[in-house]
Design a protein that fits this description.
9 helices; about 70% helix
């Protein structure tokens, strides 16, 4: 059990009540603004955490955060791409809205953290909780932007590809997406997982930039 278990317990609540609902609400709001009311009809155009809670994803987030890491998800937001303006670009905007919301939360957290440190606040539980909040929001942003279905990054990737390439690649990635994600998580030849290398290359510099650590 991590030494900062109480801080992580508080963070679980914050993630389930604030971060994940904002992530999914951002998807719903972007879709609604682009012409698709599906999420609104399903009661997902709301910040109410209950509407976005996924039992499996939420439980996994709680367990992983308490054990020392941080991985989970909320209930996927229903979107009908056919209703969206701008075609594939509309779909990409909706997909990117979730990870962008996590980055905004991380930035806000870093502002609060820097302000507290500048004010001389030295309460380790408070500082550690905010730091973990920033870290996990960045982790969620980076992970969701991986261009593999069903992650948000796949829609962004398809928007940038030529239409013919996206049309042929989408069903293949959709079919084998879960397998590809597993391969990213599993260590290769006993070394570091590819996902770990991605986090080290992207998340760590972002974290240092935001918190100055």
């Amino acid at each position: 059990m991590p030494a900062d278990f109480p801080e992580r317990a508080i963070l679980v609540i914050v993630m389930l009540v604030v971060a994940l609902p904002i992530h999914e609400f951002s998807h719903a709001l972007a879709a609604y603004r682009l012409g698709d009311s599906t999420a609104r009809l399903f009661g997902r155009l709301t910040l109410n955490p209950v509407a976005h809670f996924d039992p499996i994803g939420g439980s996994l987030l709680a367990i992983s955060v308490l054990l020392g890491s941080g991985f989970g998800w909320a209930k996927p937001t229903p979107v009908n791409p056919r209703n969206l303006r701008y075609g594939r670009w509309g779909e990409a905007i909706v997909a990117a809205a979730g990870p962008i919301s996590n980055f905004v939360l991380a930035v806000l957290g870093s502002v609060v953290l820097r302000a507290l440190l500048a004010a001389g606040v030295d309460s380790l539980p408070v500082i550690d909780t905010i730091f973990l909040f920033i870290q996990i929001n960045l982790l969620l942003m980076v992970f969701n932007l991986i261009p593999i279905p069903p992650l948000d990054g796949s829609a962004v990737l398809f928007a940038f590809l030529p239409a013919s390439t996206a049309w042929s690649l989408r069903p293949i990635l959709s079919q084998y997406g879960l397998l590809l994600l597993i391969l990213l998580i599993v260590p290769i030849f006993g070394g570091e997982p590819i996902l770990g290398a991605i986090f080290n290359a992207v998340l760590v510099p972002l974290l240092h930039f935001l918190v100055g650590a």
